[in-house]
Design goal:
An eight-stranded mixed β-sheet has the order 31-32-34-33-35-36-37-38, sandwiched between helices. It has a four-stranded antiparallel β-sheet with strand order 3-4-5-6, with no helix packed on it. A four-stranded antiparallel β-sheet has the order 7-8-9-10, with no helix packed on it. It is globular. 17% of the residues lie in helices and 34% in strands. It contains eleven helices and 38 strands. Helix 5 crosses helix 6 and helix 7 packs antiparallel against helix 8.
């Protein structure tokens, strides 16, 4: 059996993987290059302005995400690289005075993040917390810029506790210890109190306030009740804490919590029937920016925190707004849609009628992205009549009634949502004559509490059927035929891929499972300790092995009779690579065509460009081989 090996990647048969780990592999020629310019499109993300006007962002012109800066008055071509981590940067957080940046970085996609402190004046980087067995992450700066809070599982592999690091003393102190997934959320004005979020599941999270002088803790969310509370932050008076919550409702929206009485009050009463995605405050806590989910699109709203009356925002096209943050009178935001990459803009809140100024450019590899196809939002009926939202992409020259190869792409999560953003791979496949449908089945976020909980535990089958009915929909509408449809997804989307092809094998002609679950018992046993409780809340507990077996595609592998492609990182902490190997071995025993792609320097996804290129080249070749023959 053959194996393809390059400096960072191996294309291998499952049973050879251990041998490859010992370095036994042989290089062979590369794959087709038609998809390469699409995948190599790139643009900066995560923009932040320092007080002196320096722009910071994350970019990957060398194929690996690093931190860059552009001096005031400069342009993107003048950008200076600040980090050189071998596996790139995970993220960064800047102090309010702009003098310090905390960077997170991990090795080989392991997600075992370490913390590094960057002095913006000298660009010197100092390692603060580095341990391959521990996760350090979620830095949250105190407003005086002299300390930051973070979370770590160093004293309990299954639990995240909260710490504060003091820059002057270079000492760290644990300030909150409790079981579960706890994260720092916000300091009050004088830094004497810290809000902490405890996340139990997508529909249950709490907020606690720590008085740092004596370590006392009080819950500011309703005790004994299970709602989702996402922290936005203290208002400008510290008398209220602003949250995004579904409290006593189905859809999440912005509320205030009175810090004395505990009263919880909805404040965006003019935004009804739509779910709020996020909220963020400006520096003096007098302006609140809110992202509202409107059928998958993301709309920006601005409010005064004194009375939550509207503030005029920039004029934007239909798409998705994100990366919103403030510096003085300036607001940074990123905007994208299906034919617009995520450009970072600066907009002056004191000049509301003026448009945002683009601060970054996208490298589109010479492709005219303005001609990219915009999707159609459809709602197809599932097995029980429930209408499932989905985004449908068709080629520009599509003629009604023509049968074309189709891809059903399942998102991860499951508490995720497919959004109609700039999607390079979709546009390549559409340009090559494919149709694509991206459904948001039960369990997806963005549609309220009832919808996100509709797939929990014993209801897993309903979500899988929603995925199957997406394939039925494009067949019934005459876009394609049975066996001309591919199932494709990553993480939970990988599970959906495997579940749909085992429950409805007659519909699909090929499938690609990326870092997906096939055996819920082994997945829960081997996923990182700090993830297990969160995932049991969604999928079911290890104490119910019979149910976990009933929803695991590995036990229905005999139904799979179409070619399968598997792609996985060897360092995946969420869905260990053994999930991929199990299904590969099971299918090989039956003689089913399995193509495998394993990356020794990746985890739950493919962060390095050269790895992504190999994966997408193989994927395009795989779909063409097995779907276009019937077109």
């Amino acid at each position: 059996m053959s194996a393809t090996c390059s400096r960072r990647m191996w294309l291998v048969q499952a049973w050879i993987c251990v041998l490859l780990a010992w370095g036994i592999a042989q290089p062979v020629a590369g794959a087709p290059t038609g998809i390469e310019p699409y995948i190599k499109m790139r643009w900066p993300t995560g923009g932040r302005l320092s007080p002196d006007g320096t722009l910071y962002f994350v970019f990957d012109p060398d194929g690996i995400r690093q931190l860059y800066k552009v001096a005031p008055g400069g342009t993107q071509k003048d950008a200076v690289k600040l980090t050189t981590f071998p596996d790139g940067i995970g993220g960064y957080s800047m102090s309010d005075d702009g003098k310090w940046i905390v960077c997170t970085a991990a090795v080989g996609g392991s997600e075992q993040n370490d913390l590094y402190l960057l002095d913006t004046a000298t660009t010197k980087i100092e390692p603060l917390f580095v341990d391959p067995k521990v996760v350090f992450e979620a830095p949250e700066w105190r407003r005086d810029s002299k300390a930051f809070a973070y979370r770590s599982n160093e004293t309990s592999s299954a639990d995240f506790h909260v710490y504060i690091y003091d820059l002057a003393s270079k000492q760290s102190k644990k300030v909150y210890e409790a079981a579960g997934s706890n994260s720092p959320a916000d300091f009050n004005r004088d830094g004497t109190k810290l809000a902490v979020t405890k996340y139990t599941s997508a529909s249950f999270s709490q907020i606690f306030e720590i008085t740092l002088a004596d370590g006392s803790v009080r819950e500011i969310t309703p005790k004994g009740e299970e709602w989702s509370f996402e922290a936005v932050g203290y208002d400008n008076t510290d008398r209220n804490f602003i949250v995004n919550t579904d409290y006593k409702a189905d859809l999440k929206t912005i509320h205030t919590i009175d810090m004395q009485s505990g009263a919880i009050k909805p404040v965006l009463t003019d935004i009804g029937g739509r779910e709020v995605d996020w909220g963020t405050l400006n520096e003096d806590r007098q302006i609140l920016a809110v992202g509202v989910n409107e059928d998958g699109y993301g709309t920006l709203y601005l409010r005064r925190t004194s009375d939550f009356t509207p503030v005029q925002g920039p004029t934007l096209a239909k798409g998705i707004v994100g990366n919103v943050n403030f510096r003085g009178s300036n607001m940074l935001y990123a905007f994208d849609n299906a034919n617009t990459p995520g450009i970072i803009y600066k907009w002056n809140i004191n000049k509301p009628t003026e448009p945002g100024i683009p601060l970054t450019l996208a490298d589109t590899q010479g492709i005219d992205v303005s001609k990219f196809r915009l999707p159609e939002l459809v709602h197809y009926p599932s097995f029980d009549g429930t209408k499932i939202p989905a985004f449908l992409y068709l080629p520009a020259d599509y003629q009604k009634g023509k049968k074309i190869p189709f891809i059903v792409q399942y998102h991860g999560g499951p508490e995720g949502q497919y959004r109609p953003s700039f999607n390079r791979s979709f546009q390549y496949f559409v340009a090559e004559g494919y149709g694509v449908i991206a459904p948001n089945p039960r369990g997806s976020s963005g549609y309220g509490k009832a919808f996100i909980e509709a797939d929990n535990y014993k209801n897993r089958e309903k979500s899988v059927k929603d995925g199957i009915w997406a394939a039925k929909y494009v067949i019934d509408q005459g876009y394609t035929d049975k066996r001309m449809v591919a199932a494709w997804g990553g993480s939970y989307g990988g599970f959906m891929t495997m579940a749909t092809i085992t429950e409805a094998p007659d519909l699909f002609g090929a499938a690609c499972n990326v870092v997906g679950i096939v055996n819920f018992q082994t997945f829960l046993e081997k996923t990182k300790d700090y993830r297990r409780k969160l995932r049991e809340a969604e999928y079911g507990p290890l104490s119910d092995p019979e149910f976990l077996k009933s929803i695991s595609p590995i036990y229905k592998a005999e139904r799979i009779d179409m070619p399968l492609m598997i792609a996985h990182g060897l360092n995946d902490p969420r869905v260990p690579v053994g999930e991929a190997m199990q299904i590969a071995v099971a299918l090989k025993k039956r003689g089913v065509d399995v193509e495998e792609l394993y990356f020794p320097d990746e985890g739950h996804g493919f962060a390095k460009e050269e790895n992504r290129l190999l994966y997408y080249k193989e994927l395009a070749k795989f779909f063409d081989k097995h779907l276009k023959k019937g077109a």
